[in-house]
């Protein structure tokens, strides 16, 4: 009996130590690479208390939470594990597939060209991609038979960026081969043959197609491959050294394991990232997908959103005009559509940003200059919505406390 008790004590100590390490390792790994993620960044008990129970109960693997203003990171919390089986703790440089959060980078790329007066948001897409002259829309006749006709109006760049151009979410080819199976210019050629499912401006229809077309427009107007344009305009100057469409072997070692819920075993189970072809670092068969292809880290992503919270300015350098950020953060869906969506941005009061398919979320507030980042990698986990709500309440508490003390 004495031996069993000693074993239980040792095992419990190891387990609790691993949890503590997974939480406090964030503070140890902050480093001094930038003034934004530094020793001034601290963890916060409200975030830990909100998220740790989900890890303890085995309902979620782990989280990284970042709360910042436009000048510095205020709070950074790593809770739980990037890989439960190996007990690898979450860290500021843990890599995540940010999925549809990629979309707001695409709108930012478009807006740099609007700032340069090379693109007008209300121009028809066919002005930049001539293959869309003569595009068609599906309609159903009285017998329910689908036919094709010309759209009532021509789809515009603005409509593509706010999901009202008329295309469906994905195409059959994207479902079968993955969202990364064609480069933006070749994807645009294919999309030109895909009929719209509604007339432009009449419905909100969340669409990878429209955002991928925006990426093709960036390529056409800039004369650069889409990934190089993002690298030149944002990733390199902002110091986003880990953000990529193609995580290499070293980056994949930092990639958070994806989890789904195994209902039979009633626990988390590893899953493969969906929607992609493999290997992830294959640049010959995988291509930069503007609607959802990016991988990034918390310490990278916060810089981009600090720039947005700073109305286009980060660390003294302007990346977007104030007007460009305002348009991203303003409802662009027409008055006949109640759904509030900006230019590749969901709107929550004064906050704007985007989430991703595996649960992450990133948002900025230009009125307060604040940022909130939530990084997870789960799909179809019953408690993921509850966990995100708990995080959001805790993050808002952190911001309120900072406002009181500053």
End-to-end Cα distance: 56 Å
The ordered string of helix (H) and strand (E) elements is: HHEEEEHEEHHHHHHEEEHEEHEEEEH
| Order of adjacent strands in the largest pleated sheet | 3-2-1-15-14-13-12
Largest sheet: 7 strands, antiparallel
The poorly predicted ranges are 1-25, 27-36
Number of strands: 15
Average pLDDT score: 90
- Secondary structure class reads alpha+beta
Rg, please?
22 Å
Count of helix runs: 12
Report the β-strand fraction as a percent range: 15-25%
Q: What percentage of residues falls in helices of 4 or more residues?
A: 25-40%
- Overall spatial form: globular
Keywords:
15 strands, single chain, alpha+beta, disordered N terminus, two-stranded antiparallel sheet, 12 helices, 36% helix, 406 residues, seven-stranded antiparallel beta sheet
Question: In short, what is this structure?
Answer:
About 35% of the residues lie in helices and about 15% in strands.
What's the arrangement of secondary structure elements?
Blueprint: H1 2-29, H2 45-56, E1 62-69, E2 73-83, E3 88-89, E4 96-97, H3 102-115, E5 137-140, E6 146-149, H4 157-161, H5 172-177, H6 184-191, H7 208-222, H8 226-238, H9 249-253, E7 258-262, E8 267-271, E9 295-296, H10 298-309, E10 313-314, E11 317-318, H11 322-328, E12 346-348, E13 351-355, E14 361-365, E15 370-375, H12 384-405
Antiparallel strand pairs: 1-2, 1-15, 2-3, 4-9, 5-6, 7-8, 10-11, 12-13, 13-14, 14-15
What does this structure look like?
- The chain is an alpha+beta fold and 406 residues long.
- The chain has twelve helices and 15 strands.
- It has helices at residues 2-29, 45-56, 102-115, 157-161, 172-177, 184-191, 208-222, 226-238, 249-253, 298-309, 322-328, 384-405; strands spanning 62-69, 73-83, 88-89, 96-97, 137-140, 146-149, 258-262, 267-271, 295-296, 313-314, 317-318, 346-348, 351-355, 361-365, 370-375.
- The strands form five sheets. The chain has a seven-stranded antiparallel β-sheet with strand order 3-2-1-15-14-13-12, with helices on both faces. A two-stranded antiparallel ribbon has the order 4-9. A two-stranded antiparallel ribbon has the order 5-6.
- β7 (258-262) and β8 (267-271) form a beta hairpin.
- α2 packs antiparallel against α12, α3 runs parallel beside α7 (208-222) and α6 (184-191) packs across α7.
- The longest helix is centred in the first third of the chain and has 28 residues, at 2-29.
- The protein is globular, with a radius of gyration of 22 Å.
């Amino acid at each position: 009996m004495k031996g069993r008790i000693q074993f239980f004590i040792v095992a419990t100590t190891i387990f609790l130590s691993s949890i503590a390490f997974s939480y406090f390792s964030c503070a140890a790994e902050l480093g001094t690479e930038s003034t934004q993620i530094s020793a001034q960044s601290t963890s916060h008990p409200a975030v830990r208390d909100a998220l740790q129970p989900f890890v303890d109960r085995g309902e979620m693997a782990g989280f990284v939470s970042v709360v910042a203003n436009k000048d510095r990171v205020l709070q950074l919390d790593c809770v739980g594990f990037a890989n439960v089986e190996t007990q690898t703790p979450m860290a500021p440089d843990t890599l995540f597939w940010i999925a549809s959060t990629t979309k707001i980078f695409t709108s930012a790329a478009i807006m740099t060209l609007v700032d340069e007066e090379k693109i007008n948001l209300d121009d028809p897409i066919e002005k930049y991609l001539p293959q869309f002259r003569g595009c068609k829309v599906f309609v159903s006749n009285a017998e329910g038979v689908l036919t094709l006709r010309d759209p009532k109006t021509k789809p515009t760049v603005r409509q593509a960026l706010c999901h009202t151009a008329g295309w469906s979410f994905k195409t059959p080819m994207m479902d079968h081969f993955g969202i990364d199976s064609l480069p933006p210019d070749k994807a645009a050629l294919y999309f030109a043959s895909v009929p719209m499912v509604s007339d432009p401006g009449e419905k909100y229809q969340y669409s990878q197609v429209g955002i991928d077309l925006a990426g093709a427009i960036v390529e056409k107007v800039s004369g650069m491959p889409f990934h190089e344009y993002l690298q030149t305009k944002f990733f390199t100057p902002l110091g986003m050294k880990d953000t990529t469409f193609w995580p290499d072997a070293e980056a994949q070692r930092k990639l958070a394991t994806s989890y789904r819920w195994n209902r039979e075993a009633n626990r988390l189970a590893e899953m493969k990232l969906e929607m992609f072809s493999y290997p992830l670092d294959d640049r010959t068969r995988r291509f930069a997908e503007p609607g959802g292809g990016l991988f990034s880290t918390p310490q990278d992503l916060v810089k981009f959103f600090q720039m947005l919270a700073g109305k286009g300015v980060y660390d003294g350098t302007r990346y977007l005009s104030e007007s460009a950020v305002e348009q991203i953060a303003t409802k662009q869906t027409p008055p006949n559509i109640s759904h509030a969506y900006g230019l590749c941005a969901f709107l929550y009061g004064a906050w704007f940003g985007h989430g991703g398919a595996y649960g992450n979320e990133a948002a900025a507030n230009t009125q307060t200059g604040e940022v909130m980042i939530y990084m997870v990698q789960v799909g179809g986990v019953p408690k993921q919505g509850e966990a995100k709500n708990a995080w959001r309440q805790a993050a808002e508490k952190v911001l309120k406390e900072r406002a009181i003390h500053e």
